[in-house]
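Entry 14. Two folds queued back to back today. First construct below, sequence then C-alpha cells.
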Amino acid sequence: MARPNFDDFDPDFASAAQWAAMYRHYGLQIIPCCSPTEVKPGTSWKRPLLSTWRTLQEELVPDATFRRWYDPQTGDYRARRNMGIITGACSGRAFILDLDLHKNPAAAVWWRGVLQLHNNGSEPETPRQRTGGGGLQLLFRAPAHWTAPTNRTERGVDIRGQGGFAVMPSSLHDSGEAYAWLPGMAPWEIEILEAPEWLCGEIVKLVGATNINSSPGNINSPDGNINSPAPDHGQADRKTGDFDPFGNRVDGREEHMRDMVWRCVVKLRRASPIPPTGEEHQRIIDAEYEVYERTVQVQSPFPLESKRAGLEREGRGASAFLAKWQYAMRQWYEDVAIAAAQPDPSPEAVDPAAEFAAATATAQQTGKLFEYLTVEQILAMADPKWLIDKLMIEHSLGIIYGPPGSLKTFISLDVALSLATKQPSWWGYGIHHTGTVVYISSEGVANLKFRMQAWAQHRGVDIANAPFRLIRQSINFMKAEDIGILLETVQAIVDEAGPVAAVFVDTVSRVLPGAKENQQEDMSLFVAACDQVRNRFMTTVIGLHHTNYAGGMRGSTVIPGAGDFLIEVSRDAGEMQGFIRAKKIKDGEDGWDRPFEATLVELGDIGGHSSLVVDGVEKQANDGTGLPEKNVLRQILAAIDEQWSKGKPWCHSKVSTRCAETNISRRWEIDRKVAARILEYWNANGVIEEEEADAKRHIKGYKKLLEI
C-alpha cells in the first residue's frame, strides 16, 4: 500500500501548529476545538471552538485562513493542543467510524460480526486512533457515489460523516489522557482507505435500525442511500418491485440470501448437534447455493455473461453466500442452537415420498452428482503425511492421556519444543514438518519457564527465538465467541511467527468448564472446536486428557472415536520410568509401547530451580537367540530387586500396573512372550520367587534370590 510523504513528522515533539499542518497536508479540514476546562460542568467540550464552523462543511478553507489559525509564529491557535476535523465533503469525503468499545459491549459485537461476515475477520488497513476516553475511531473516505451520514446509535457505534466533527490527536481528554494514533496506523504512516461497499451497506443498515439522531438530508439523499431501489432495467411488472416476470428475485437478494442461509443452518442443527465438516459440509453449501441461484436474477446483465458471474460481480453471488454461511456457522453453539431448540415453524407435514421425488427432480435438473473415484484414481491418491513417524499424522486431531502425575505434560512439551525448534526427530521418530507451536494452558504456567529451560539445557538447544507461543487465558471451547477469539489469536500468531505445525490444548477438561464429559453432545463441542482450528490453519491439534478410575480415557467415546491418534501415558507414582502406548494410530501401526525415563535437570540458577525432562529409552539389542543380551538381563533382575526394596514389587498378575511381564516388555522393548519366558525360567531355577512383600496390605511380588 502506498505511503504518504510526511516522513519528517514526529508526534512526540510536534507543536500544535505542526499537528494541524499535518492534517491539512492530507486534505482534512482541521479546526480548533474546545478543551474540557473551557465549558460549563455537564456540557460537552467535544465541539469546535469556532461558532462559524458549520459554514466550513463544503470545502477546504483557503491557505490564508489556515495560516491565520495555525501559522507557527503568528497563528491565533498555534499553541492550542485541542483540535478536530470537520468530516464530509470539506475533508475529501473523510468520515469517522467511532466504536465505543470501552463502555458498550454491543459495539464490539457489531464490529466483530461485520468483519467476520465481510472481511474474513480482518481489520481494514486505515488510520485509527485511541481516544482519550478509551474508544476506537477509524478514519475512512466515502466512495464518490455515497455520502456518509452523521449518526449516534444505541449500540455504541457512531458515524461522523457529512456535517460531523471528530476530536483528533494531539487533543487532551477530560480523563487526562491524550488522543493518540495507534502504532503504524497514523495518517502519515498509512493511506486513508476508501470505505468498501460492504461497510457502507452495514452503516446504512445500522443507522436505519438503531439511530438515535442524525444530521438531516444525508441518509435519504439519492446519492446517500445505497439500499435505494435499483433501476428497472426494462423488467416491468415485478411483484412488489422485487421480482422479474418469471418470479426470479432481482431486488432484496441480500436479505433473501441471509434468510435462506439462516434457515438452512438451523435445519442442520435440528438434525444433529455436531456441525458438518470437510467435504460433506462443502456439498451441503454447494447444494444450497444452487437453490439460491435458481431463485434470483442479475440486475444489470452483461452480454455473454453467465448468471453466476453476474451475481458475483454484483456482490450477490457465491462469495457473499459463503461469507454469510460461515458467519451463521460461527453461531452454531449460541444463536443457532437457540433457534434450533424452537419448534420447526414449517406448517405442513413432510411427505417423505414427495420430498424424495422433489429432490430427485432437482438433481436431474441440475445434473449435479457426488464425486466418485475409479480404482486407478484411488490408487493415485496422495499418501497420508506423517508429522512424526509412527505417531502423528499431519492436519489431524489426537489425544495424549494418562492419570495425574504420569508426566503427560512433560511429554507434550517435549513434542512441542521439538517441533518449534526444528528438531530432526523425536525419540528417534523422524519429524517431517516443523513450525510455530501454539500451547493453550491455564494450568501450571508459573513452572513452564523452568520446564522449558531444563529442556533446552538437557537437549543443548537454544529456544530464545523459537516460534513457541503460550495462550494462558481460560478458553471455553463450548462458547462460539471464545472459539472466534481463539481463531483470530492463532491468525495473529501465524502473521507474526509463520504457519502453525501444532496446537496443544492442556487440558481438555480446562477448556470445557461445566461440561458433562460422559455426554456425547458436550464432548462433541470440543471436537467441533478443534476441527475449526485444524481446518482453518491446516494444523494438528493435540489435546491432553485424563484417565477414568478404570484406567481408560475419561468421558464419552466421542473423543477417542474422533481422534486420529491416541497416546496413553503411564507411570507408577514416584518412579522415574514410564511408558507411552500407541492405543490408536490412524493409517499406522498401533498397540506398541515405548518406555521413557525422566531426568531431573538442575538449572544452576540463584533460585536453585530444577525440572524434569523426559527421554525415550532406546530399543535394546539381543544376542541372536531371541533373548536379550547378558547385560540387559542383569538390568532386568536389578530392577526386580529395586522394586522389591521399595515395597512395590513387580508381580505375576497381568491386570496390575506392577505386572512384571508388562514392565519388562515396555521398558526394554522386549516381546511379551520373551519377557514371560525369562520370568518363567528364573522362577523355575530359583533366581526369583514370588513372595508376600507386605502382609498388612497383602502386596505380593517377585523377589531376587540369586545373581546371574
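Second construct, same run, same settings:
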Amino acid sequence: MRSMPGLRRAVPVTALSIILLTGCALPLQRVATPAPAALPTPAPTSTAVPARSLTICLGNEPNTLYPLASPNAAARSVLAAINDGPIDTLSYDYQPVILEKIPTLAEGDVQIVPVEVKAGDTIVDVEGNVVLLAAGVWIRPSTCRGDDCIVTYDGTSTLQMDQMIVTFQMRGDVTWSDGTPLTADDSVYAYQLDAETAEIGSRFLVDRTQVYEAADPATTQWWGVPGYLDTSFMTNFWAPAPKHAWSQFQPAELPQIDIASRTPIGWGPYQIEEWAAGDHITLAKNPNYFRAAEGYPKFEEVVFRFVSDPNAAISELTAGHCDILDPSIRLDGQMALLSQLEQSGEAHSTIVPGMAIEWLGLGIVPGSYDDGISLARNDRPDILADARTRQALALCLDRQKAVDTVLFGRSTVPLTFVPLDHPLYNGNVPAYRHDPAAGIQLLEQVGWRDTDGNPSTPRLASSVANVPAGTPLTLNYYSTPALQRRQVADILSQSLAECGVGVNVQYFSQDDLYAPGPEGLLFGRRFDLIEYAMSTDAVLPPCDWFMSSEMPNAGNHWVGTNVTGFKNPEYDAACHAASLSLPGEAGFGEAFQKAQSVFAAEIPAIPLYYRLKVAAARADVCHFDLDPSANPMWNIEAFDRGQGCQ
C-alpha cells in the first residue's frame, strides 16, 4: 500500500478579544485606534501536477505473482513490469536485459569439455533420458554427435562424455526495488527453489543440470549433466529471486505467502503497491530502477484492472478507463469493432501473428491401427496414407479465404511449422496455395474418381491402394463450437467440396476434443480431420511435434504432440540431427531446413493460420509494441502517452 501522508499539524490562530463596556453611566470616550497593519502579500502557489498514471486492462486476474508457481498470462504481464527480463525474446532471437550479453560458442561463454564418467554416474543417454550409467546403456562418448558413434556401456569402464558449461555475466548496476544489490546468489537461490519445489512436468532443465553456481557476485555458471548438449543453452539462467527477502521462509511456503505470491519485490521499472482482489493491482514507479537515468519508466503509476469480457473492455477503452487492452483479453472475436475504432481515430489495435498455429490434423494412422487395420472390426479404410491425397487436400483448402474473412487478413498462412520470418525458415518449400484444379489432378492420380460427373458428390475410390473400391472420399471434420472455428470450418468444408471431398463437420466441447486417449478424439487419434492449436515458447522450430516418438499411444499413456500418427524415418532423422546441432556451430540449421522439406512433401498436418495476438490502446498511447515471440509488456518502461509520444 502507498503510505498515507502525515496529518497536518493544527496551526494556532491568535484572536484579539474586544471588551465592550455597556450599561455604564460614564460617557463614552472616543479612543484612537491604530491603523491596521498591512497584510503580507501571499506568495503565489503552484498547482500540484497529478502523477502520471497508465491503466492496463487484463483478461483475468493473475493466479499468482510467484514466478515458479505457473503464473497465467495475466500474471506474466504484471511480472514483466516488476522484473525486467532477465532475457527478452524478440523476433525469434534473445536479447540481454540484466545480462551483459547472450552467451555464445564463438566468444567462449559456452564450452563443451570432455569429462570422465563411470558406472553409477548420472548421465543423459542417446534418447535424452537422465539415467544412471550402467551396463547396456547407450551413450555418445566425447565428440560423438551422430548415431554412427554410439556405444553400449560395458558396466565397468571409465570413459569420457561431453559436458556443456555456460557462463552468464550479469550487469553490475541492477538492484532490487528496495535498494538491495541484485547478485548471482539471487539467481542461484532461484535455481535452488526450482530444484526443490518443481513438479515432475516442470523438471526438464532442473533434472539435466549438474551444477548451477555463482562464480563471483556477478557471474553464474550452468553445468549440464554429461551427455546433455542443450540447443537453448542461452536461456539456462534462472530469473533471480530475492534471497534477502524470502530465505527466512521454507521453499514450500512461498507460493502461499503474500511476500512472494502477491507483493513480490523485483528489479524492474515498477513495484507492487496494492492488490485489490477481484478488481485491480496498482504498481508504483521503482525509484531504484537501473534505467532510471535514461528517463524510464514514463509513468509514476500503472494500474492493472481485471476485465474479462471483451465487449466491456472495449467500452472501457473508449470511455478512457483503460489505456491499453492486454492480449489476455480475447479480442480476436472483436476484429471488426477494433477496425472501426481505428478508422474513427478512437483507438489503435496492435495485431501480430502469435507463436500458436491453428492446425488441421489429418488422421493418417488412427489409434485403432496400432494393433493392425481390420475392416471387419470397422476400422476406417486407409484413405489418408498416400501423401498425394494429403497434398491434394492442402491445395483444395482455401486457407487464405479463411484468413481474409475470419481474421480480416491480419494473419498469414504458414507453410510448415516454422514462421515465415524466422531465420531458420526454408523458403524453398511449396506453398500449396488454393488451387482446386491441381488438387483434383492429384486425387485423380491417386485413384479417386468423379464417377457421376457431379462435383457436389464425394469422389469414389477406384484404384486407391489399400482402400476398397467404391469407398467415398468423405471425411469427418471435428472442431470446437467457438465462433471463429465455426466460420473457418464452414469456409474450408465448402472449398474441399469443390474438389469432390465430402465433409461432415461435427462440433465437440473442449473437454471432449482434448480428452485423454484412447477415448479422446485428439489424443486417442480418433479422427479424419481435426482442428486444434499448438504453440511453443521456444525460439528454435519445434520439429519434434511430428516425430514418431511423439505419437500418443498406449505405450506412452497417450501423451504426445504427433496426434496424426505420422511416421517417416527421413523426417525423424532430420529432426534428430537438428537436436544435436548447436547455434553457432558450422552447419547449424541445415537439419531444420531438411525437416521442413520432408514435412512439406509428406504433410502430416495442414497449418491453417497463425493465431493472432490482439491488443488495443488509446490513440494517444505509443511504444506499446507487440512482438510474436515476446511478452506483451516486454518494454513497459517505454510506454508513453500524449506529448511524450511526439
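Quick look at the second one. The CA atoms of residues 108 and 167 lie 9 Å apart. The first strand starts at residue 53 and ends at 58.
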